[in-house]
Amino acid sequence: MAVTLKMLKGEEIPSEHRRPDLEALIEVKSHDGSLHYLESEEEAANLVVDLHKEDQEEGG
């Protein structure tokens, strides 16, 4: 399964992650379906690379 990255804004941001100073949140869905939420595009990109490598090592 592919790793996906999605930019969430406003009401798309899960309520448990919302706060007044947060305009956007990046959702990364890993190959096993788990979700990760990050504020930094750089951190999200690094996570996508790591998850992709992990998936490749597992034969995905």
Tell me what you see in this structure.
The chain has a 3-stranded antiparallel sheet, with helices on one face. The protein is of the alpha+beta class and 60 residues long. Strand 2 (24-29) and strand 3 form a beta hairpin. The radius of gyration is 12 Å and the shape is elongated. Helix content is 28%, strand content 27%. The chain has one domain (4-57).
List the helices and strands and how they pair.
Blueprint: E1 4-9, E2 24-29, E3 35-38, H1 41-57
Antiparallel strand pairs: 1-2, 2-3
Keywords:
single chain, 60 residues, alpha+beta, 3-stranded antiparallel sheet, 27% strand
Uncertain spans, ≥5 residues at pLDDT below 50?
none
Specify the overall morphology. elongated
Which structural class do the helices and strands define? Answer: alpha+beta
Helicity level, as a percent range?
25-40%
How do the strands line up in the largest sheet? 1-2-3
How many helical elements? Answer: 1
Strand content: 25-35%
| Biggest β-sheet strands, sense, barrel | 3 strands, antiparallel
Distance, first to last CA: 7 Å
Number of strands: 3
